[in-house]
Amino acid sequence: MNNQDLTPGALEMKIVDVLRTVYDPEIPVSIYELGLVYEIKVDDEYNASVKMTLTSPSCPAAEMLPGEVESKIKSIDGLNSFHVQVVWDPPWTPDMMSEAAKLELGMM
What we know:
Blueprint: H1 8-19, E1 37-42, E2 47-52, H2 65-74, E3 81-86, H3 99-104
Parallel strand pairs: 2-3
Antiparallel strand pairs: 1-2
């Protein structure tokens, strides 16, 4: 498939789909549902950027999760390039979790 078969919006949804398969090793919920993904953008040239965070700067998964995110995004056909950026502002809080994540963790 070439990138003319997909719109930037469709590629963003494919990124969301793969991010739903990446789990924090200490919490049985995807990083997307945890609210660790702050922004996903795909431009008209099919270049993607993802801004994400971790539950804390001292998170044991700090070295593993961004690499897993990159690996999963790399597998998506149609992207010309991508960049994953880990940011700390705003700091993550449990309020950022989806209702599904809160339900899964017994917080509702």
